[in-house]
Model the fold of this input.
Amino acid sequence: MDEGRRWRWWQRGVIYHIYPRSFADSNRDGIGDLEGIRQKLDYLVWLGVDAIWLSPIFPSPMADFGYDISDYCDVDPIFGTLADLDRLIADTHARGLKVILDFVPNHTSDQHPWFQEARSARDHPRRDWYIWADPAPDGGSPNNWRSVFGGSAWEFDPATGQYYLHTFLKEQPDLNWRNPEVRAAMFDVLRFWFERGVDGFRIDALRFLIKDASFRDNPPNPDYSPDQLPFNELIPAYSADQYELHEILAAMRHVTDAFGERVLIGEMYIPISRLVAYYGCRHERELHFPFNFQLLLIPWTARQVAATIDTYEGLLGPDDWPNWVLSNHDQPRVATRVGEAQARVAAMLLLTLRGTPTVYYGDELGLADVPIPPERRQDPLERTIGPGAGRDPCRTPMPWDASPYAGFSTVEPWLPLNPDYETRNVAAQREDPRSMLRLYRELLLLRRAEPALAIGQYRPLGVTTDVLAYERTAGGRRLAIVLNFSGHEQGFRPSREPLDGYVLLSTHLDRDGEPVRGTLLLRPNEGCVVALSGLPGR
Ligand code: NOJ
Ligand code: CA
Done:
């Protein structure tokens, strides 16, 4: 490939996703904050990541823990002040790391002054900043659209006799992106933060940003099964992934490009074949990358993962940069989905594939979802969808050490700690040369040292029921990654040529430098990076 190409920080680098309420509490109120994050920057440097992405830290009534914003250009007092954020940005930059914030353009809080004005009267100039519709002839909702968080997507406003649209909670009314004033105001929000030195945005709920202009009913989903969210009973054919979104993203990209090397990452739960459209075309770029959530969603088998990687690689254009995600603040953690032993293999996969990896805080400790007793559940989905639907288990406080409250705080945290925090914490795993934390660090160091991993080409080497193998190459350097998805020993030999070289890194952290002659033997749940001798074989 293009060896002389200039690679951008968001291509070479690894993003570390912080859920700010749960990272570190500096002022002893049990809730993480910006100063807490700042105090942990040296840890992130030691770990070897390149950028932090913070879930929303803006003023918010916290109906959806910050994804309901009442002022886009300030910091919520729970997290600190604008000055704290400036200090965090400066100190992060001083360590050579980048800062990505969350941009939530689909909806505001119902407490945002814009919505307060919009709902005050039908003829208020701000009315059209949100999406209003008259009741159906029977007085019911204007159409059948569902909220992702349960129930109808429409809420009746008795004072003005119309319904407003909310794709998420009723406390999160959707902005009307057909209105040019909304676009201008939201683009100004981006400029505000870019001018303050923010390096990019993760854009929330992007597939929903613009909806069918005539509010046609969504069709029933023939593939729905009751284990899915009620939202999935309908296909969001008219309320998501609409054609006009491309034009908006191209405009957003122009705003962004005016500030130099910044990044736009979109949160989009759509099939890969649709996802790749949001890179834009060669002449009109859109996102730097839409998040690829496939590893969160597919069954964890070697064949499924292989099919996903190759389908994605095959769909990407020459200018489209891939990315991979294993966990986030909305989904069960990887250690819970695949088990602790396989989570090490998953880490090697994430950090050796082609494309920007995002590491979710705590995954580097093998943190699993934490069971939350009913009286301590916080997520509104417990109420709107039902008990057990909440996302609290994957949002628990980061365990830093074995002290009371795990060094996260000196008071009871907003969510319970992992019950094993006295042994599963940063301090303990830093000392243990075979820990998950040390594996993450070794993988991150290797990725930084090896251009083949950071920006090299990808080629499949083979897949069996239990083993997945691929090759990454750059400048004549060839690395094979061989992953055992099973709890049994496996041997692997590519069909085209033998594996000859030596082990650079094993997920067990105990066989560096071991020669490999033809076949690689893997222990249960083991993955290896093998440095191959000789020139690339084609
Ligand atoms: C996606 C976010 O990741 C999630 O946490 C949030 O609840 C919804 N969007 C609504 O903003
Ligand atoms: Ca705090």
Observations:
- The CA atoms of residues 276 and 316 lie 6 Å apart.
- The chain is about 25% helix and 15% strand.
- The two ends are 14 Å apart (CA to CA).
